[in-house]
Amino acid sequence: MIDAHNHLQDPRFAGRQAELIQTMKSAGITACVVNGTCEEDWPAVARLAEDFPDFVKPAFGLHPWKVEKRSETYLETLRHYLKQYPHASIGECGLDRWMKSPKLAEQHQIFREHLALGVEFQRSVTIHCLKAWGPLLDELKKAPALPKFLLHSFAGSWEVAQECLKLGAYFSFSGYFLHPRKEKVRQVFKKLPPERILIESDAPDMALPNPEFPLNKLNHPANLRQIAKELASLTGLKPELFSVNTAELGLVAETSGLQAPASWRRPPVSKPLHKPLHLPNKNGHGDRRSPPP
Ligand SMILES: [Zn+2]
User: Fold this and answer.
1) What does DSSP assign to residue 282?
2) Selected residue with higher pLDDT from 268 and 51
3) Measured in angstroms, how far is the CA atom of residue 128 from the centroid of ligand 1?
């Protein structure tokens, strides 16, 4: 089981990472993608990747909430980290119109820079989006080229999801969506193609309603096991599939040997929940494996 998105470097976890990782391993979690948010926490992400090389996959990016804190040389520093860590992905970055007084022009500029880096370095990009789906879709559509990308903790509508699917998006489900009031989000995940769904803890945030591993007000990353189980029963998919997709997206090394047997896919339904995404194959059935390059 792989956690596609968390923040183990968060100061709220300071000094407890080894213990948290131990518990994650005992809960059956084999790897996690630790997302940086600003220049200040990139060294801590790098350190975790060095200290737990078989478990922590680093990601470096500038979160929209941290845009104002960046230095003039942030982009150079980011490039340096991507060169230094060839298995690192890019994130967390994105657009946020929910935050207090967002600096939208700067957010857009920085988001474009992250997408361009993803293309240049051929790394996946993890995207945060709150109340900014229209602008995000505009950016993705007008980008000269797109890297592989993950919409983490995706809470957009089914209409937005369909647009994003056409652009090759992957979507991750967090434990916060298990709250009763998040029914709309759960319905979207029921309709998404199985090969585009990932799971994440987003620890220490996005706490679950009744966590298996309570940690005061924080979300313990080992709660991923519960997230996998509940999303599997919700979608009728085998929980292993979500980890395979993490490898397919390139967030963890492909050498991890994860592969999706056909039997792990959702059984065919008489009435398709959505139109086949891609070109029909010889038999006239939609090839839902991957988008055209
Ligand atoms: Zn996050």
Assistant:
1) T
2) 51
3) 7
Which residue bears the tokens 């309603």?
A: 209
Tokens coding 26: 């005992």
pLDDT tens per residue across span 93-106: 999 999 888 888 99
Q: What is the DSSP letter of 96?
A: E
For residue 290, pLDDT beyond 90: no
Tell me the CA–centroid distance for residue 267 and ligand 1, in Å: 32
Q: What is the dihedral of CA 68, 69, 75, 81, to 10 degrees?
A: -140
d(CA 185, CA 125) in angstroms, rounded, equals 22
283 phi and psi, to 5 degrees?
A: -85, 0
> Taking 90 as the threshold, does the pLDDT of residue 149 lie above it?
yes
Gap from CA of 125 to ligand 1 centroid (Å): 12
Residue 124 alpha carbon to ligand 1 centre in Å:
15
In CATH terms, 2-258 corresponds, of 3.60.15.10, 3.50.50.60, 3.20.20.80, 3.20.20.140, to: 3.20.20.140
Distance in Å, CA 143 to ligand 1 centroid: 23
The encoded tokens of residue 65 equal: 């909430």
92 CA → ligand 1 middle, Å: 6
Residue 257 is predicted with a pLDDT of: 65
CA of 233 to the centre of ligand 1 (A): 24
Strands 89-96 and 56-60 come out as parallel
Instruction: Decide: 123 and 159 in contact? Cβ < 8 Å.
Output: no
The alpha carbon of 281 and the centre of ligand 1 are apart by a number of angstroms equal to 37
Domain residue limits, the chain: 2-258
Q: For residue 127, report the distance from its CA to the centre of ligand 1, in Å.
A: 9
CA distances from 125 to 84, 149, 207, 222 (A): 17, 5, 23, 24
Distance CA 20, CA 8 (A): 9
